[in-house]
Amino acid sequence: MTVPGDGEPPASLDLTPAEWGLWQAFRNGSTHDLSSGDPEEDDPNGRRPWGPGRQVRARVVALLLLDGPPPQPGRVTALKLTGARVTGTLDLAGGAVGPFVELRGCRFDREVVLPEARFSTLRLVGCRIPRLEAARLQTEGDLHLPRCTVHRGIRLTDARVGTDLLINQLVVERDRKGRSIVADGISVGQDFQAELIESHGELSLRGAQIGVSLSLRGSRLSNPQGRRALNAPQLTVERTLYMTAAGVGGSPFATGTTPPYGLNTPPYGTTPRDGMLVRPFECVGGIRLDDGRFGDALDFDRARFELDSGQELSMRRIQTPELRFLCERPQRGRVVLSGAKVVNLVDRAESWPGPGGLAMAGFSYECLIPRGRFPLPERLEWVAAATPEYAPEPYEQLSNALRTSGEDTHARVALLAKQRRRRETLPLAGKVWGYLQDWTVAYGYRPGRAAVWMAFLWAVGALFFSRATPQPVSKEGAPHWDPALYTLDLLLPVINLGQDTSWKWDTLHQWASVVMILLGWMLATTVAAGASRLLRRN
């Protein structure tokens, strides 16, 4: 339908006063406000009915946006509508919308249909929408849905948002398939802000690409009836994914505005400002971030995860310069980091789950940055919790990270813990040999023990053999009897000092000599095994 050349509406439209006012406001680029001024009555989610004086047909809105009248001289057309009830289905599928669009505090009787539509900027603020269908939607500028209530889900599959996507304080219910927001393959040029939202169903972001940051600060994702509350494999965020707490009291959200760059939460370990209510990120249901790429960081500061026994916080094969695992400890479910690659691991001892709740086979990190007290024994328990069955990689990874931080002593302790854990899997003979290496030289990681054992055996042997005088084997050329030198010759398996073969003993002292020789060989063998292990590690 084409409007007359003078900008007047077609007579067949039979515009109501509310629609006539919207028509004129569109040509002027001004806001058409149909609200009453009473907050309770103007609440789009309230029970009070909105009469004919506040009703605008979706057909009229579509006509204005797709084939509207020209602007008044010196003005730019824009559709700015506040406090209206939009009747019928607003269907702009496949259309190209040039004017700026902003609807505030409106009620939609039926779903909004925008598949493959193209906008400059689209803002739906504080509206009640039965469902938003916008697959392959394109915007040159922003797409805003803050403080909206959507009852049967949102579909943004393969949408393209030129700048920012803002859905702060959105409340969205599940669709027929149990999904709240389906945005698989969406591309956002700059920030995707989803702060303080309430999602009742699965939020799906498979293969999404975010140009700057994705913020879920203070949001609550709930899908207790499904497997996951957030399903975002192969998600790419050029900077940081925030699943952290948000300050509510005293924040810009308290006045109903949408800040352009989200909330600045207090730094780690600091106390929020007086009067600020901190709302944590909460997730009831599993999270899947497998194969994700995060350019700056993945942040879980003060997050809460409520998982069932079969659900996971899955981060398989993710890559990020920094993982901030500073959440509350999940009581059930599993945290999976298998194959993940991280440069800095920022964590707290209280954040990690216990045995059976952590899997990190192939998890690599370069530097450990603990927040608060995280001593080495607890760090070793952290590794043990992730390996119900013995695996050497987690211990070697911990040792490498400790050595990178300049903690060589702790690095050796980690490798010693690996050998002790390995010993538990060996047969009886291997366990005996392992205990011997552990007691003597700590598997080669404490070489100073060899000198202590050698000195102890030397002193005991010298004292024992000094209480008797042996008979020389040959009276000609027999060396001077020296019990200390004789004991040392017994203990050293390769070096010959000419003492052990020059004397004859009675039975008791002869067996004592054999014991010293065996102990010397055992000590030398364990030292050699430990040294070879150290050389292989280096």
Description:
This is Oxidoreductase. It comes from Streptomyces zingiberis. There is one protein chain. The protein has 538 residues and is an alpha/beta fold. The protein is 25% helix and 24% strand. The protein has ten helices and 45 strands. A 13-stranded parallel sheet has the order 1-3-6-10-14-18-22-26-30-36-39-41-43. The protein has an eleven-stranded parallel sheet with strand order 5-8-12-16-20-24-28-34-38-40-42. It has a seven-stranded parallel sheet with strand order 9-13-17-21-25-29-35, with no helix packed on it. The longest helix has 31 residues. It is rod-shaped, with a radius of gyration of 37 Å.
Spatial arrangement of strands, main beta sheet: 1-3-6-10-14-18-22-26-30-36-39-41-43
Strand segment count = 45
Distance between the termini: 79 Å
Radius of gyration: 37 Å
Structural class: alpha/beta
Number of helices: 10
Note the overall shape.
Answer: rod-shaped
Reported for the largest beta sheet, the result is:
13 strands, parallel
Helix content: 25-40%
Low-confidence stretches: 250-271
Average pLDDT confidence is: 86
Estimate the strand proportion. 15-25%
